[in-house]
Amino acid sequence: MAALPKERRQRVQARAMELATLKDLRQAAQQTQEQLASALGVGQDTISRLEKRSDMLLSTLRHYIESMGGQLNLVAQFPNRPPVVIEHLGRELSTSRNKTGAVQRRGRSVASGAAN
């Protein structure tokens, strides 16, 4: 996507907003299943199966979108409230060990803008 002229990127992004399937998104980004498979380090058959699925892990969907240069955002919408962007879902949290060797997870709360 980054290699495309600005006008073409804008058209691809506008078209992507109208699309409903992963296959449509991939085609709008002008990528083949083989190209996407190479970027993800999997076989073309894996991409074919993935595009036919109706349910998958968010981390899988995030990798698929990011391999095309996109960014996955998950937004929860409720009546009479502003939308809430859910962060860190489908993304691995970084971990470290403290002085005692116990694992400590780093990351913010699950939903930004949510009251604690």
TrEMBL record:
Residues 22-52 form the HTH cro/C1-type domain. Residues 90-116 are annotated as: Disordered. The keyword tRNA-binding does not apply. Transmembrane segments: none annotated. GO terms for molecular function: DNA binding. Residues 15-42 form a coiled coil. Keywords: Coiled coil. This is Transcriptional regulator. InterPro entries: Cro/C1-type_HTH, Lambda_DNA-bd_dom_sf.
